Amino acid sequence: MTNVYKTTLMNILYLCKFIGIINISYILESNGLLIQSTDIIYKLLEFTRMILLIIFTYYIHKYGAFTQTINLCNVWSVIIASRISEKRVIQLMNGIIEYDQKLTSLPRFLFISQHSQKKNYWNKIFIFTLIYYVIVTLVIFKTFPPKTFDIFTISLFIVRLEFLVDVAVIFSTCFFLQQLDCRFQTLNDSWQYLLPGFISVPAGELSHFITGMTLDKIRLLHAELSDLLRIFSAGYGQMLVGFFVFSYTNTVLTFYYMIHHNAAKIEESTFIYFLNTFMIYMTSLQNVTFILSIIMAASRVHEKKRKMISYLRLIRISNLPANLKIQIKMFINQISIFESDEITAFGIFNINLNLVVSILVLLITGLITLIQLKEHPFMKQSVDSLVNYLRNITKGTNK
């Protein structure tokens, strides 16, 4: 479980460092812990990357459309939020390694199975995402071949900061949620195997004293996992607020522009075909997939976290020795305290399946509101800006 975590973490780190979510100076040691290097080369690389991000931002804002400005806000909100909570994120990464070291203190017979995604699982996701990125890039170039190959072309058609940031947030968020999920499941399996031992373990194999010590270790490990869950909410909460807000805004505007263009019956065939049959639907599907990935991963963690209390309630503590009764009661009280903790977006809203309904209601409400405000000068200006921008590209293509 630890080896797969270290291997996959390297790829996640490279992606986060490339886009600016994590400082380049953080390096992964052989023991799996991250430390910040003081080498001057890392500071130069960090400075160079930030300069490139600023240059790309300038050209996209200057020559891009209104929707691309919103995407830039998403990019920088994630980068700034990640830097504010960077220590929490590093604490989470190192905390999982330290937790795995403490997990070995449990008796060996409890490790019937250790749940962890195989290395190939994340490799397949990385490859599929790369293929999708290349296909979308080729479609854009085929539809709107640029007249010149400059910084604007690179930043808008090749690098595509908003997509890379979204992928980095999704991958890192789902990866750490998955790691917590697997470790909660390992504890649950250990408890299920220990449960018959309260009654039917062969004499001499597991005394009441050793059982009490094992229960105490499982209780402490469960508490530490719950603390890691809190650290996750603190480290990723601010990033997820920006991600959810701008994903929602982008989706609402995408649907609005689609309705507006269909109603206006604009006849630029290449542009309309590309916009309505590919970009709009792919962008919407992409946003929905990203959001659902986080929500489902968070829901699985909560489900595994709460399973332990159902196991505890199955025990008839009246038949147990005094020391085991105390351990069970302490465990139940501890879980009752941690049970109220939810994975949140900086405390603004909880990330669970109920969020899906809330987002759907907000999407419908926002879309209806924009349609009612279609005659507002700001909305007209945003639509005209997008249409003129895409017409200029089309004119450039036809020349």
From TrEMBL:
Membrane topology of the entry: Multi-pass membrane protein
Keywords, ordered alphabetically: Cell membrane, Membrane, Receptor, Transducer, Transmembrane, Transmembrane helix
Transmembrane parts of this sequence: 12-28, 125-145, 151-177, 239-259, 271-298, 353-373
Subcellular location: Cell membrane
Pfam families: 7tm_7
Main location as per UniProt: membrane
Family matches, as InterPro entries: 7TM_chemorcpt (IPR013604)
Keyword Transmembrane helix: yes
Gene Ontology cellular component list: plasma membrane
GO biological process, one term: signal transduction
Family from the record: Belongs to the insect chemoreceptor superfamily. Gustatory receptor (GR) family.
Protein purpose: Gustatory receptor which mediates acceptance or avoidance behavior, depending on its substrates.
Name the UniProt record assigns to this protein: Gustatory receptor
